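Case study 2.
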Amino acid sequence: MNLPLVNVFTTPYEAWYTRNATLEEMQKHMEEHGNMVPFVNDGLKARISNHLEAASYMAKNGADNGLEGFIDRHLDNDANYRALRNAMPSKTPAVLYDFQQKYPNYSAVDVDCEINNIGHSLSDGQFLFHGGLWPNPAASEIVLNSPFSTSFCPQVALRNAEWKGKAYDAGQIDLFVLRASNPRTNVFAFRRKGTSMGNEKEVLFASGAKLSLRERTLIRDDYVAAKYGFQNKSIPIYVIKVDIS
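Prediction:
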C-alpha cells in the first residue's frame, strides 16, 4: 500500500537577514502584538519552494534552525502526514526502536522483516533527504543491501553526514535529494512526538532500495568539516538528485 504524499514546501520558506530593532520598532511591535522583539527582518536571504532549493541552501549555509522549525510545523499540521503516520503501528516495534537508539548495532534482517511486515511504500514523487556519500563513484545505479535512513529535513540529513566525524573522514559530503520513482521498497516512518529521536523526522527504507544518480552539483568546496581531536578542514559538498525505488 502506498502512503500519502507529503510535501513540506507547499508553502515556501523564507529566510531573512535581520538587524537589531530600534526602540521605536520594539514599541510598535509591543503595541500590535503584545510582545517585544530584539530583531527585525532586513532583507530576504532566500525563498525556498522545493526540496532541491532547500538542499542547496542548506549545503551553502550549513545550518538554519528556522528551516527545520518550518518543516516541523508543516508536519504538525499536515493531514497527509497524519495519515502517513496513522498507517504505522501505534507503538514503534521494538526492533525499529532499537535501530534508532542503538545504531549502528542492529540486525538488518530483523529490521527488514519488521518493515516488510508493516507493508507500506511511498507514493511516486515523494521527496526526502539523506546525508552521506554516494556509495560507488563508478556506478550511477546501485541496489542497497542494508536499511537506508532518510529525513523530511535537509538540516537533519546534513548533521547525520557529519556525525562522529564521518564527513571529515570521507573528505566530502553528498546531500541527497531523493525522489520516489516507481517505489517498491517498504518504509517505516518513525514517531516525532514523545520520543528522544523524534527530531530526526526519519523515514527508514528496508534493504533492497534501488538508487539512481541523476545529477551532481558542487555547491561549495570550502565546507568546514570537524572531528574531535583533529584540526578542522575544508571539504567539498555536493547536492545530488537521486531517484529511489
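The mean pLDDT is 95.
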